[in-house]
Amino acid sequence: MKTIETVYNKLNSDKTELGTHKVELGLVDDLKKITSDASKIEKNTRTNNKESFRLRDVQKEIDEQKRNLIKELTNDIKKGDSIYKKLNSTLEKAFKISKELGINTNEIKGFNQASDQLARIVNATDSAQDAIDAVK
User: Fold this and answer.
1) Which of 41, 73, 93, 122 is in the most buried spot, having the most CB atoms within 10 Å?
2) What's the CA gap between 44 and 42, in Å, rounded?
3) Where does the chain have alpha helices with state H?
4) 122 and 132 Cβ atoms separated by less than 8 Å
5) Please, which residues have CB within 8 angstroms of residue 93's CB and are 6 or more apart in sequence?
6) Under a CB-based contact definition with an 8 Å cutoff, are residues 76 and 125 in contact?
7) Spatial contact of 115 and 95, defined as CB atoms under 8 Å apart
8) The domain containing residue 39 runs over which residues?
9) How many other C-beta atoms can be found within 10 angstroms of the C-beta atom of residue 80?
10) What is the pLDDT of residues 42-60, one digit of tens each?
11) Could you give the number of structural domains in the chain?
12) What is the pLDDT of residues 81-130, one digit of tens each?
């Protein structure tokens, strides 16, 4: 009977040892997998960091272009408003004089083109303001 107990004890001790080796091999496999995953995340993070800096630089360039565009459009609006006032005043004078002289404004050379231009300058300045609003 003692022999059988010794055999069972030996078998049990061997099983425990094999179980330990399996656990150790499992840990090694886990470490490899986790290390591989960590390496992938590290590489992906480096790539995304580079991309974020590139996008930051692109955004800075876009912001600079927007500022320049807004500045130019604002100047165009100011000039357009000034020209509108001058042109409108001149057209009003021409209209008044034509009435005093009893002539049709169509007979005044350039009156119709100037009148048309007055409407176009209003459209242009309105469009410039819309463009400013769009890029803000």
Assistant:
1) 73
2) 5
3) 2-101, 111-135
4) no
5) none
6) yes
7) no
8) 2-135
9) 19
10) 999 999 999 999 999 999 9
11) 1
12) 999 999 999 999 999 999 999 999 998 999 999 999 999 999 999 999 99
